[in-house]
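Sequence decides. Our protein:
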Amino acid sequence: MKKLKKATRLFCLAVLLLLAVTGIAITGAAPTQAKNRERINDNQTLTELVEKKEDEEDD
């Protein structure tokens, strides 16, 4: 009885592993989400304007 129980557990483990592997193979690995979604959605190119100080313009 112990051998039958052990064989059944081993068979079930093998079936579950096979199902998991085929599921990943068919659909591919799940993508991971970024922690900061604003960084993903913000696709604008940002430029910075550098202005001279008033002291430099007077010289």
Notes: The chain has a mean pLDDT of 78. The two ends are 99 Å apart (CA to CA). Helices lie at 2-27, 37-41, 54-58. DSSP finds three helices and no strands in the chain.
